[in-house]
UniProtKB/TrEMBL annotation:
SUPFAM superfamilies: Phosphofructokinase
Protein's name in the database: 6-phosphofructokinase
Broadest EC class assigned to this enzyme: transferase
GO biological processes: canonical glycolysis; fructose 1,6-bisphosphate metabolic process; fructose 6-phosphate metabolic process
Length: 344
C-alpha cells in the first residue's frame, strides 16, 4: 500500500511522533511506502510532497511542530477541490490517507470519503482536547504542563507584589486546558466557555481570598470564555481568513473589571502559542506513537473512514461520521465538584 500522510489545522506537540510511528509501522511491518504531503491539503492539491523513510525521520520523536508543515484551508474551499484531491492521489499512486488533525481536518476527511471515496483514517490532534469519541487528544497534556509551569512561576511574583494575575490560556470552544491547569496551579477562579461567568462573582472570590490574608490570586481564563449576558460587555473579535473569530484578549477585560471591583492591582499574562510550541511530554509521545501505529493498522484492516482514539486507556476505532460536527466539552463534574472547591 502507498499511504499519504498530512497534518492539518493548528500545530500541536506530538505531530512528528505520529508521523514517525506511521512511517515505521507501515514500512517495517507492512512493506508499505509513505509519502508526506506538505502544508496540509495545499500539498495534496498542488502535488507537493516528500517521501518518508525510516532513516529520514530519525530524531523527530521529541521535536515540536510538524516537519510536514500545516495550514487551515480545505479542498472544500474550491469548487473542484475534492475531485482534484482524488485525481492527484491517483496520479501519485496513493491508495489511502492518514489525516492528523482537529475537528476541521476530520470533517474534511469524513466528507472526502463520502463524496469521492478516498480511504482515510483520522488521528485526533489538538491541544484544546475537544474532539468527540476519544478520551484525550495528543498535545493536550503538554499544553497543560506548559500552562501549569507558567502559573507556578506567576504565583511567586504575584505573592511578592500582592497582585492578582489573570492568566489566559487557549481553548476556543472548551475549557479543558483552563480547567486542568487551573486545578494543577491552584487557581482562585477558572473561567471556561462551558460556564458563562459573572464578573461580580469572580471579584468576590478574589476578595474572599484576600480577606483571609492571602493577597495574591491567580485567575485562569480560557480564550473562549464569555461573560453572562448583561454582566459585562461581551468581547468582540476580528475574523481570521477562515472566518473564525481571532480569539485572544478576554483576559484584559477580565483583569480590568477585577481591578475596578476589588481595588487590587491586577496584571495580565497571555500564554498564547507557547502552549503549542516545543517538545511533547512523555505522555503525548506515547499517545502519539500508539495512535500512529493504530492508524496504519486500521487502514490494513480495510477501514476506510475511521478515527483512531482512546477510550479507557484502550485504542478504539470510531467511524468518522460519529466524530464530526461534535465538540467534546469539559466534564462539568470535574469543574463543579473539584475545581470550584478551591475557588476564593
Ligand atoms: O489549536 C487550537 C487553537 O489552539 C485554539 O485554541 C486557538 O484559538 C487557535 O488554535 C489559534 O490558532 P492560530 O493562531 O494558529 O489560528
Amino acid at each position: 500500500m502507498r499511504i499519504g500522510v498530512l497534518t492539518g489545522g493548528g500545530d500541536c506537540p506530538g505531530l512528528n511522533a505520529v508521523i514517525r510511528a506511521v512511517t515505521r509501522k507501515a514500512i517495517n511491518d507492512f512493506g508499505d511506502s509513505v509519502v508526506g504531503f506538505l502544508d496540509a491539503w495545499d500539498g495534496v492539491l498542488e502535488k507537493r510532497s516528500t517521501e518518508l523513510t525510516v532513516a529520514r525521520l530519525a530524531g523527530i520523536l521529541p521535536r515540536g511542530g510538524t516537519i510536514l508543515g500545516t495550514r487551515r484551508g480545505s479542498p472544500y474551499d474550491l469548487p473542484d477541490g475534492p475531485a482534484q484531491v482524488k485525481q492527484n492521489l491517483a496520479d501519485m499512486g496513493v491508495d489511502a490517507l492518514i489525516v492528523i488533525g482537529g475537528n476541521g481536518s476530520l470533517w474534511v476527511a469524513s466528507h472526502l470519503n463520502e463524496d469521492v471515496g478516498i480511504p482515510i483514517v483520522g488521528v485526533p490532534k489538538t491541544i484544546d482536547n475537544d474532539i468527540a469519541e476519544t478520551d484525550v487528544c495528543f498535545g493536550f497534556h503538554t499544553a497543560v504542563q506548559i500552562a501549569t509551569d507558567a502559573i507556578d512561576r506567576l504565583h511567586t511574583t504575584a505573592e511578592s507584589h500582592d497582585r492578582v494575575m489573570v492568566v489566559e490560556v487557549m481553548g476556543r470552544d472548551t475549557g479543558w486546558i483552563a480547567t486542568y491547569a487551573g486545578i494543577a496551579g491552584g487557581a482562585t477562579a477558572i473561567l471556561i466557555p462551558e460556564r458563562p461567568f459573572d464578573i461580580d462573582d469572580i471579584a468576590n472570590e478574589v476578595k474572599r481570598k484576600h480577606s483571609r490574608g492571602r493577597y495574591a490570586s491567580i485567575v485562569v481564563v480560557a480564550e473562549g470564555a464569555m461573560p453572562k449576558e448583561g454582566t459585562m460587555p461581551e468581547p468582540r473579535y476580528d475574523l481570521d481568513p477562515f472566518g473564525r473569530p481571532r480569539l485572544g484578549g478576554i483576559s484584559v477585560e477580565v483583569a480590568h473589571a477585577i481591578e475596578e471591583r476589588t481595588g487590587f492591582e491586577t496584571r495580565v499574562v497571555q500564554i498564547g502559542h507557547v502552549q503549542r510550541g516545543g517538545t511533547p511530554n512523555a505522555f503525548d509521545r506515547v499517545l502519539s506513537t500508539r495512535l500512529g501505529i493504530a492508524a496504519v493498522e486500521a487502514l490494513h484492516a480495510g477501514e476506510c473512514s475511521t478515527m483512531v482514539g482512546v477510550r479507557n486507556e484502550q485504542i478504539v476505532h470510531v467511524p468518522l461520521s460519529e466524530v464530526v460536527g461534535k465538540t467534546r466539552h469539559v466534564d462539568l463534574s470535574l469543574y463543579d465538584d473539584v475545581a470550584t472547591v478551591f475557588f476564593g
